[in-house]
């Protein structure tokens, strides 16, 4: 092993995580780091930006070349979990084989994917491989205030690991910029990682409490809720953290503080009990959880709401464990928290509800724990339906309003209109391709979707001279109501159909005369022509000729919606804010439906809409 001043490093998987831990390798003493470190990325568009962030050369897609050029003493192995095994086979196995054949010393391997465990690498690379699974402290500072010393990095060594004392000392020194280093067994670290994710959902509870209390006329800031929760927990646990941040139980009124205490204690207790149940001795489990909750509540106390939500999205790797915790909370607890606290102070958390919450957070930790075993498995993409399209739209409007106010609503109104016209123009191209004139009559044949039986009830109105339809059951409205998003869906009904019609035939003014989303009993559409028996037969012949060839599935429609809304939001609000709104809406969509549906939408985003 070379001296620390001479050590060489190769980073395989130069992504967000490896940029984040840059202080660890940038702190290495000795020769200039640019001469003894190389990062490798698969992101062709970000090589230069990653070089600037990391302070080392970064190359594109040549892991084997980087290893053979530098002959590193340490490999930082940080691909997505789904690629860890294949890259081990393709890159590490040949390289380690070459070294063993030449009788050279094997490099230390810092493996950052939570799976596979260290024994997998030893089986593949030989028992001479000294490997450590690393879960680094991801909180260096909060709102400009240093916090790394208050956190910890988790390290797992396989049994019979073969590490020398000086190598372990180097490992500790390497991660010292990120706080303490805690060693856990493979079985313990899964539990610790699970609770590190579910712990963060206490902030989600406080966010939902803030939202519903404000809606009810009891304005309270998330920062104050978090400060009160943190003050209570630190006092309860007798913990004085490094790099302390002030906190006060008086940050919220007395009755609300009692509710915050009960929620905080039982969330903490549920995750602590889970961790002890996974084989971590109570003293170490309490130490881990003290630091976890202190840091998570610091973030909620000191960061702005947009910063906090953005940080969660950035850390929630698609298909990863934090995303899993977010999905679990959203599906199992969010609606209940909103409903319960909408009745505060008439309702306050009683013992039974608090105990259910405690068990709920233990169950959430178990869900994340189970998910850890599936990170390398392939997930089939979902098949979107009307519900997914409807909810994605409403979430885009919700985020636009919350982040940009009236300008955000205006941007989404324009985005809806453009989306409608784009759909109409596709329908027009189909009509012309099949030899039909695009007008109000043929519009009835060239629709791009169809609903499963019973989801939509559309009836002609035979007592009208003009052709008129009534929609008495609308799946979009039903889904918005079911998800508590009806207010955000209204702009869709007002703007989309008239613009689809204009895209299909600029002279066709579809009469939208009533809307269920506006409180009317039915949606009424007037088409401006008389439907005779001859025309009805003609329409049936066109539909028979087409079949379903002009229709698209809702994976396609949801992707089109996302792409158009993102583009218009960026045009109206600027690239940074527009993209942030779209990303936030997509993450909220993931939390409601799961990653497989997000993957299905994203897989269609390269289409020419």
Average pLDDT number: 95
Radius of gyration: 28 Å
Helical region count?
A: 22
Q: Helices and strands: which structural class?
A: alpha/beta
The spatial strand order of the largest sheet comes to 3-2-1-4-5-6-9-10
Strand content: 5-15%
Short summary of the structure?
With 609 residues, the chain is α/β, with parallel strands linked by helices. Helices cover 57% and strands 9% of the residues. The model has no long low-confidence stretch (mean pLDDT 95).
Report what the structure shows.
The chain is of the alpha/beta class and 609 residues long. 57% of the residues lie in helices and 9% in strands. It contains 22 helices and 14 strands. Helix 5 (81-101) links the parallel strand 4 (74-77) and strand 5 (108-111).
